[in-house]
Amino acid sequence: MRVLPEHGHEVTGLDIVPSPYTTTTASVADRDAVRRSVAGVGAVVHCATLHKPHVASHTRADFVETNVTGTLNLLEEAVNADVSRFIFTSTTSAFGRALTPAPGEPAAWITEDVAPVPRNIYGTTKVAAENLCELIARDHGLPCLILRTSRFFPESDDRDEVRGAYEDLNIKVNELLYRRVEIEDIISAVELALERAPAIGFGRYIISATSPFTPADMLAIRTDLPSVVRQLFPDFEDIYEARGWRMFPAIERTYVNERARTELGWSPRYDFRHALDRLANGEDPRSPLARSIGAKGYHESSTGVYTVR
Question: Containing H/E element for 90?
Fold first, then answer.
């Protein structure tokens, strides 16, 4: 809603929260509101969701209503309105338990071919919504691309032990190695998906910063991540030491974005190397768009570290 108008698109925003970027204040679970919103549009970018932080505050039925029924409403009304393409922002959380290898095994090499094993109602409903996208795409010929985005939220990590051990920006820069993406890069992926959807038809894509690791690194990063990072980025320790930062001792997986780069022509800018260069120059490693948006929170009142609106 911020970027597309700057690039010449006329946009309509449907959201449950009024804002300068909201055209219609309603839920995707409201079929009539969805019908009115998609009338006459050429494309739908579906970002509405109950997210992981809502697991503690909303029921499973709430998740089904928003994430499953809401997605079906959008898909069916898009078909009825002859919309030409549909982009669904899903999540790498859909992989769930597949992200955690058994003790002693190498870190998981996560591509789109890994079968999801949802860990909670959030992942379960996002996988169900993805399957609805595929069903409607194949039954009705609606070009539909699914973007499984990795972490991009600006709020603090929800794990007490991680927050207590690392500075917040230290955590986020570490995560660019394997499980984080800048929102500016997400938006570029959305724009490419809008462009390529009619030719592709249907597809799923991991949208995460390009990892420097290869399959040959999976055992080492599971046991001694700093040594691998040191080999790949000899300057990282000096840059980190100047800030009092530390690398994680080990990680359990890495996301692979090769399909998005190949099929969408996506070229994410904000990777670990980019962050190191900006830090070395005394600059903020975050994108201008991320800094502009800031933290929005997930609830009306405080319920935790990343749930304050």
Answer: strand 85-91
Strand partners, 96: 117
Closest CA to 128 of 207, 196, 32, 49: 49
| Segment 187-225, tens digit of pLDDT | 999 999 999 999 999 999 999 999 999 999 999 999 999
Q: What is the three-state SS of 121-156? A: HHHHHHHHHHHHHHHHHHHHCCCEEEEEECECCCCC
Domain count, the chain: 1
Alpha carbons 220 and 242: distance in angstroms, whole number = 26
Q: How confident is the model at residue 307 (pLDDT cuts 50, 70, 90)?
A: low
| CA dihedral sign, ordered 178, 182, 187, 191 | negative
Report the C-alpha gap between 117 and 5 in whole angstroms. Answer: 38
Assess whether pLDDT exceeds 70 at residue 106. Answer: yes
Q: Does residue 145 form part of some domain?
A: yes
Non-local CB neighbours of 117 within 8 Å, separated by 6+ positions: 95, 96, 97, 98
Q: In this structure, is residue 152 part of a structural domain?
A: yes
Centroid of chain to Cα 123: 13
Tokens of residue 258, six digits: 């090769």
Q: CATH code at 227? A: 3.40.50.720
Is the pTM value of this prediction over 0.85? yes
